[in-house]
Amino acid sequence: MNLLSRVYLLTGILFLMSCNTKKVIEPVQDYEEMEEITFEPIDIYPDSIELDSLPKVFRPSATMSYDIIHTKLDLRFDWIKRHVLGKADLMIKPFFRPIDSLILDAVGFDIHQVALTDNKTLAYRYDGANLTIILDKTYTRTDTFRLNITYTAKPDENPITGSEAITSNKGLFFINPTGSNPDLPTQIWTQGETEHNSRWFPTFDKPNERFSQEIILTVNDKFKTLSNGKLISSNKNADGTRTDHWKQEKAHAPYLAMIAVGDFHVETEYWNDIPLTYMVDKNYGKYAKKIFNHTPEMLAFFSNLLKYPYPWDKYSQVVVHEFVSGAMENTGAVVFGDFVQKTDKELAIENNDDIVAHELFHHWFGDLVTCEDWSNLVLNEGFASYAEYLWAEHKYGRTHAEYKRWIDIQTYFQENYFGRTRPVVHYYYDDKEEMFDRHSYEKGGLILHMLRNYIGDDAFFTALNSYLTKHAGSAVEIAELRMAFEDTIGEDLNWFFDQWFIGQGQPHIHITYTYDSLNHTLRIQTDQSETPDHFSYPFKLPTDVVIYHADGRVTYHPITITETIQEFVLNNINHKPLNYILNSNGDLLMIKSESGKSDTEYIHQVNHVSNFEEKISAIRNIKDQEKLIPILLNDSFYIWRSTAIELIEDTNSDNYIDKLQDMALSDHNEIVRRSAYYKLLNFDSFDPMLLTHLILKSEKSYPMLEIALNVIGIYEPASYKQYFDMFKNEESDYLVTMLVSMMPDDSQEYLEYAAQKARTIDLRYAAGFFEGYKDFTLSKGLKAIEHAIDSNLTIADPTNGSPVRKLHAMNFMLNLCNELIEMTDNVDAQILLDSSLFKIKAIALAETDPDLIESPIYNGFRE
Dmax over Cα atoms in the chain, in whole Å? Predict the structure, then answer.
């Protein structure tokens, strides 16, 4: 499971200081990667926020009185009623003690029959969530028996709840089942985590259960299907349907079972004789492999790193619409939300490596070895989050990976800032859905990184191989991971696991450096006293001090912090060092401040330390920030070049204009190019037009092009037409908002372009588009307003099947009407207003979609 709502604090231009740079050009779209932040330490625990108190209910793993050995499902669908018509064949054996009855999870079903395989019907009780079956006799652990259950599942007819990571618990979702919405394909897909698959088939819906499975799907022949395992048969039926039979031999947890049905484009390739399939919307078919770029390379990398080959029989990745999470690691059949579908140019801005690596690594950590309860979710999600770091380190280098880790640290700290802190392994949660947070994901990965650095790469990956080998096909808790490491290195690690996984928080440390030239010593005092009392305090922190000597030597001095206030004395340092750093590799998760170092030492740190965390620390502490510009402007890592650009002020712009223009045109990183261009636009003395024309003719990045189009629209509208013609037929709708916002007049070509885009705009860009469409329309007068309202009346018509687009159109028209209301002295405006409101009200009253009727816009006309 990928936590899609992760807060990326910094994925583009970095702002290191509070600056009053004049913003001349403001792009219409809100670029997440252009977000302004500082490197100032965060006040993690403001007095106004109360920290969570832990509830007193212990959450154990589920007690198993029986074990489902195999699940076989035969499924058909009533698309109109949104029902699943199912037959379940469950092979079961008592776990240890004899049983004469059992309880299955089955939420919101109509139960038609329960029988044994020989058709002997069984008595049962059903309360809408639990199916209690009275067996025909007492069975012992040496027996197996098979239950046949005929049922109708109605996932849409049950109360819906969700969490930050998974917004709905329906389990199975019908998307546009009648085909009435032209903006959506017709699909069925499932989302089983945490315990939601029991809304479409009866099971023991707990993560410590495991079964092999078969799923037989009968669907319209035009649809493709996907499930776990391999497709062992596919037969066309006389009624225009087709029956596909999927079978997975290896057992997995119930929440990992899945199906998907839809009119997908499918691309197939092979890696080590394992079939890889990429399933996307047909209009993204030519980008299918690029959307899931590097999948074969990731499979090879993770298999080699773990010395444990990919353990499943296939690897499929499918994109669905209206998915309720980022992605889900169903065994061998990962489901992604449609946000991953991008064109070449969009993928150049942001690829899907992180989410693809995350879900793939789950196939070892989560699917092969599964957390036995949700309290131990970090054993799934912490590893998957750390996989993103491992892949970035392998593919893009250590600096890029460390930058990513720094983002994870800030993301985790944000959760702390809002008052949520808990043990990572948390046996006292209120609701299992709460476990899908920054502690299970980011903090889990950060802890693994500390452990890797503490014991070394060889031991770390050897221990992971041992853990996977020993526990393959089973459910585990945190102690079993600890023992795998202890057995590997021969050292008791209870202190580490208790402190970081069972304990809470992280240390707040102030470090004071003092060099004594008379005694030739370096004194380092560490003070943890600002750490909140309810954290695992004082923390034990094995680390080191690196000293950069005046004679060019670099020495490392291991230390272990164990006390609230502690002093370390390093002797025989005959000359004042050039610099000294505690925690030189930056692996410790902590809130750090320090004193006793000068700008000279911090400048040395920026020049000579590659570690991202310590470079940030130096940049933050340097008083004369201007000294950083020439150092960082030519750095090999794009973030530091962007940082340097942000430090350039109007007062020293003459020294850098040529360099910035060169960077805006030719830097190999799009974020740096954008940063340089954006900075130039904010210099009072700079004429941007020549550079802007060059960018529009050579640049491939949509964000850069969007800013450049904005400049043209503001400063040289006479040139707009040539660029409108150049970009109006782009495959992606990324630029449409800017194109519409900057259209210079109300010529028929522009009016029709805006109206046509309102009918077809990719809904990912719809909110920004309709805002830009409104601005354009209102700036051009009554002709444009009348044309826009007439065009959007058609979109909002009740016979139009796209509720989201209808809602946008209705909101857009009402915004225009609000402006007409203000034109009290214009008779034509008031006539248009009256006519438009009459038509809009008629549309609202004729609407039958219940979701739209209940919306404020539609409901307002009915009151």
Answer: 96
Let me know the angle formed at the C-alpha of 259 by 368 and 107, rounded to the nearest 5 degrees. Answer: 90
Contacts of 372 (CB under 8 A, 6+ apart): 61, 207, 208, 475, 476, 477
As a whole number of angstroms, the distance between CA 788 and CA 19 comes to 41
Give the number of residues written for the chain: 863
Q: Which of 579, 435, 588 is nearest to 509 (CA)?
A: 588
Residues 6+ apart with CB under 8 A from 186: 79, 175, 176, 177, 178, 179, 223, 262, 263
d(CA 531, CA 501): 17
CA dihedral 628, 634, 640, 646 (to 10 degrees): 60
- Cis status, amide bond into 562, omega within 30 of 0: no
* Kind plus residue range of the DSSP H or E element containing 774: helix 766-780
Residues 6+ apart with CB under 8 A from 730: 345
CA dist 353 → 389, 569, 710, 733 (Å): 11, 45, 31, 23
| Residue 320 to residue 175: CA distance in whole angstroms | 9
> Can you give the pLDDT at residue 47?
41
Nearest C-alpha neighbor of 557 from the set 541, 569, 567, 574 = 569
The CA–CA distances, whole Å, from 77 to 80, 241, 802, 825 equal 9, 11, 23, 59
Q: How far is Cα 693 from Cα 706, in angstroms, rounded to an integer?
A: 12
- What are the Cα distances from residue 93, in Å, to 140, 141, 214, 320, 818? 8, 6, 18, 36, 68
Crossing angle of helices 689-698/657-666, nearest 10°?
A: 20
**Region for 797 from its dihedrals, namely left if φ exceeds 0, alpha if ψ lies in -120 to 50, beta otherwise:** beta
Report the predicted TM-score, pTM, of the whole model to 2 decimal places. Answer: 0.92
- Give the closest residue to 623 by CA, choosing from 592, 600, 655, 596: 600
Six token digits for residue 815: 């915004």
Pick from 762, 756, 764, 719: nearest CA to 740: 756
What φ, ψ does residue 563 adopt, rounded to 5°? -120, 165
**Rounded distance, CA 465 to CA 41, Å?**
38
- The rounded distance, in Å, linking the Cα atoms of 201 and 205 is 10
Half-sphere exposure for 765 (CA within 13 Å, toward CB) = 23
Mean pLDDT per 10-residue interval, the chain, length 863 residues = 49 32 31 36 41 70 98 98 98 98 98 95 97 98 98 89 73 95 96 97 98 98 98 98 98 98 98 98 97 97 98 98 95 97 94 98 98 98 98 97 96 88 95 95 98 98 98 98 98 98 96 96 97 90 96 96 98 95 94 95 94 92 94 95 95 92 97 97 94 96 96 93 96 96 94 97 95 96 96 93 93 96 94 96 93 89 75
Say how many C-beta atoms besides its own lie within 10 A of residue 863's C-beta. Answer: 4
Phi, psi for residue 454 in degrees, rounded to 5: -70, -45
Helices (H), 307-377: 344-349, 353-361
Q: Which two tokens stand for residue 315?
A: 């690897």
Rounded Cα distance between 12 and 425, Å, is 33
